[in-house]
Description:
heterodimer, A: alpha+beta, Uridine Diphospho-n-acetylenolpyruvylglucosamine Reductase, domain 2, Uridine Diphospho-n-acetylenolpyruvylglucosamine Reductase, domain 3, Enolase-like, domain 1, five-stranded antiparallel β-sheet, four-stranded antiparallel β-sheet, 33% helix, B: alpha+beta, Ubiquitin-like (UB roll), five-stranded mixed β-sheet, 5 helices, globular
Amino acid sequence: MRSFEFFEPTTLAEASRLFAQEHAQLLAGGTDLVIGMKALTETPQSVISLQKIAGLAGITTDADGGVSIGVMTRVRDVELSEEIRNGYTALAEGAAEIGSIQIRNLATLGGNIAHASPAADTVAALLALDAQVDIASADGERSVPIHALFTGPGQTILTAGEIMTRFRLPSPASGSHYIKHKIREVMDLAFIGVAAAVDMDNGTITGARIGLAAVAPTPIRATEAEELLAGKSLTDAILAEAGEAAAAACSPISDLRCSAEHRREMVDVLTRRTVREAVARAHA
Amino acid sequence: MAKLPVTLTVNGDGYDLLIEPRKTLLAVLRDTIGLTGTKEGCSTGDCGACTVIVDGRAVTSCMVLGVTAADKAIMTIEGLAADGELHPVQQAFIDTGGYQCGFCTPGFIMASKALLDENPARTEEEFRHALGGNICRCTGYTKILEAVMQAAEEIRTTA
């Protein structure tokens, strides 16, 4: 690991000022950054820890019935939160898929998203749950929907000095579910990840959102599939149409993990499966 | 960069140290303090050999910068026995032969200890899943799981 200057600011303004400098990196849980620094794929000149800034960790209920999750919230706490498990099940399921318990005790929700891996385990659920990302900088605050955050593998719209502060989730959907397609039970990366969230009224799907991970340069929403489902009741025929539309929306690569063809086929299969389960949970 | 003054609390003892920011908690424990019970395996968070307990949570110490561990309660395998008595999970590993070469053992014991503190009423399947971040290169998993189940029973019955 190369040497670097270490900072542990206690305010966001100070962190933002430091982060606006060249060759600066933010440190959250460290499970990506520390490993990257050892491998010399990350060679920052300054490392800015966020752990001493008050208010960046924790899950709170919002006045509008939704929840806010601070970026420094450990993914193990997201996984175990009763509020998240009950109201935002897909996100708890995604969090539980990351690495091992030891890693989830370190890794943060903010880090999982800021790393901008197309295969991040929480991102499909945050897309399906329509998360809003609050961002702070020296110039003030802004907020973007999570589907507008990513621009490429490892790339986001964040500019110099901008720091994500929290994810705001609207009041819970009727049901949600996440499936990670993988080989090992734990400590594996997703071949693909599919999350679905549905709003139901009297047996009719009034709205559906589908998040896809590891099937395009960025995590994406399968908007055509979502539109096909809206206003319908659940049938095999409509599920088949939605699955095909989701598969058509992705642009997967072939790599050592699996082929693009397999990924596309499994997006079809797992879209049908996640939507069916999300609807079942809405009725439960 | 210059070394930073940091006070670490390890197994209840305070250590006033000067450490380089790039040193991991694992390196500080082993090389600076001299507590070599915690092992370095893969150094990428995959094997669990370096597991220690920080503020009650099992973590892979190879992924933690030592300077970020100030003001936290760090427990290593050396701190587990109390008043000369082995912790039930240590005794269980001995009783069942839950070790072969022993290199992964401190990590398995610390990960198990944290799981048992949290909930000793897990099923074997649940323990197996929860210990998925620890690898035994001798493949002695059957005895390791026996040890964890024995320790769980011991803790449940004496609680």
